[in-house]
Amino acid sequence: MNRINNIDSMQYLDISHKRYEDIRSRGEYTADATLIAEYYRRVGVLLQFMSKESVSIFTSMSKIINNEIENLDYDNMYTICPNLEGINLSVFKIICFNYFQWCTLLDVGDPIAIKFHDIYEPIIKLFERGGGQISIHHHELIGGFGAFTRTISASRGDKKELDISDQALKQEIKEVEHAEAYLKEYKLDSSATNNCVRCRNRLVIQEKESYGNRWYKIKCETKTCYDQNFS
User: Fold this and answer.
1) Which of 58, 86, 191, 200 is most exposed, with minimal Cβ within 10 Å?
2) Please, which residues have CB within 8 angstroms of residue 14's CB and are 6 or more apart in sequence?
3) pTM exceeds cut of 0.70
């Protein structure tokens, strides 16, 4: 719970009224998407272990493995973590509350909770980094990163584990910033060239127009390397 207490609530005040681009860079949102995807994957692994098909993003993981867990008072969360009270983001608060319940199971030594002790790590790390401007719209979890399904399927557990270390996330941000700089140069001079920061092979920009908007795909010539859309 100390981690929640240490989150700087100032970075979330009035955030729901701001545009995504006024809060974080495209690179930071790319890192945010990685953290959310890894959280979904870890939930999927737990669901497979418990033979469950899916859960809502709002579901407390503690309830999946132990329905008899002592209920914590949601309002008491503000006594434990007063810094959350001024944050007007319901998904943020509900997940934090679910994390409190998970910590309770860890404290009492629940064997399944201990086996999956780090299930909340990606999403809590997201909040710590300031990427908590997420909400539900049309049954999707949305933010500056795009959208994820509101329902987490057990099939997510089959995905490849993502590296969410600080170093890996910084590298993701660097890659996007590098691609953005190249795209800016390309728009001024279409003959401009640049190389991938991962493998040093050439980056290729492909243009596409859809519904009156022009999109750019920046790909590395190396297969399975850098590949991202820019609008």
Assistant:
1) 191
2) 88
3) yes
Question: Sorting pLDDT into bands at 50, 70 and 90, what band is 8?
Answer: confident
Partners of 226 in the β-ladder: none
Please tell me the chain's helix, strand, coil percentages from 3-state DSSP, rounded to the nearest 5: 50, 15, 35
State how far the Cα of 177 lies from the Cα of 73, in Å rounded to an integer: 43
- Report angle CA 175, 181, 187 to the nearest 5 degrees: 130
pLDDT at 1: 66
Sheet containing strand 146-149, edge to edge, reads 135-137, 140-143, 146-149
Own/partner long-range contacts of 110-118 (Cβ < 8 Å, ≥24 apart) = 110/65, 110/66, 112/49, 112/50, 112/65, 112/66, 113/62, 113/65, 113/66, 115/49, 116/42, 116/45, 116/46, 116/49, 116/61, 118/42
Q: Report the pLDDT averaged over residues 103-122.
A: 94
pLDDT tens by residue, 47-72: 999 999 999 999 999 989 976 666 56
Query: Which one, of 165, 175, 132, lies nearest residue 26 by Cα?
Result: 175
The residues near 10 (Cβ < 8 Å, ≥ 6 apart) are: none
Please report, rounded to a whole number, the percentage of residues in the chain having pLDDT higher than 90.
61
Residues β-bridged to residue 135: 142
Distance, C-alpha 221 to centroid of its chain: 27
Whether the CB-CB separation of 152 and 44 falls below 8 Å is answered with yes
Identify whether the C-beta of residue 65 lies closer than 8 Å to the C-beta of residue 112: yes
Please, what is the angle between helix 166-188 and helix 26-49, to 10°?
140
